[in-house]
Amino acid sequence: MFAKLVTRMNNRFVYILLLFIVFFTSCVPSKDLIYLQNKGTAVKDTVSQIALKPYRLQVNDVVVINIKSIDPKLVEIFSATNATQASQAQTFESSYFNGYSINDHGNIRMPILGEVNVLGFTVEEVRQKIESLLLTNYFKKEAEIFVKVKLSGFRYTINGEIKTPGYKILYQDKVNIMEAIANSGDIEVTGNRKEVKVIRQFPQGTETFTIDLTDAAAVNSPVYYLQPNDYIYIQPLKQKTWGTGTTGIQSLGTIITILSLATTTFLLLKK
Questions:
Q1: Angle at the Cα of 196 from the Cα atoms of 207 and 120, rounded to 5 degrees
Q2: What is the DSSP code (8-state) at residue 104?
Q3: Could you tell me whether strands 154-160 and 230-234 are parallel, antiparallel, or unpaired per DSSP bridges?
Q4: Contact 88, 77 (CB under 8 A)
Q5: Which range is least confidently modeled, 48-57, 62-71, 223-232?
Q6: How many CB atoms lie within 10 A of CB 44?
């Protein structure tokens, strides 16, 4: 009799232990949700110069070019838009139709200047090139030519465990991955912040990077500062696959449901 009692107590202890294991392993720890923690790997230094290198234009990029002078009529023929349109706020849609798309040969086609190769150039280098062409072939310095070149918005795509996935556009020159995530509504609780994938395009092909956003050392990653056309993918945590819940309350509710179902099944079979 005593042996049976001990056996029952041991069984109950095992069941309770299993419940606790399931309960705690099914929850998402808070350390997996906090960004840029000091894990002792961060270096107290400036961000790597590689990460801050200016973006170089690629095929299918769209650039907006505005040319101004003391006399607007002198440069009007060189612009794809008239002075009134150029002064209005640019949207991505207007930039797409009024800007210059880089073709498969790396060229843009401008009025009068014709084909201008810009593949692999920075926007500053494109500005200098167009300004030089205008001053060399068409204008004197006294015309005070002013050339402005910009990308038609900073474009990126984000997908996976994010509140608002999809194709995004920000109207600023530099965007880091934290800004991109904030602009997309933040990562879901079930998103893996430790292994965020960034797929980046290069002239020679694409390359995939992994960044741990829970580590303060992430600011030194070559993909902390995004480049136009980057693709960000947030992988799901195992907790989502298990379906046991992401918080303690959710996990407890799941466990109680399973136990209730098991008990009901046992009683029905016993009858």
A1: 30
A2: T
A3: parallel
A4: no
A5: 48-57
A6: 5
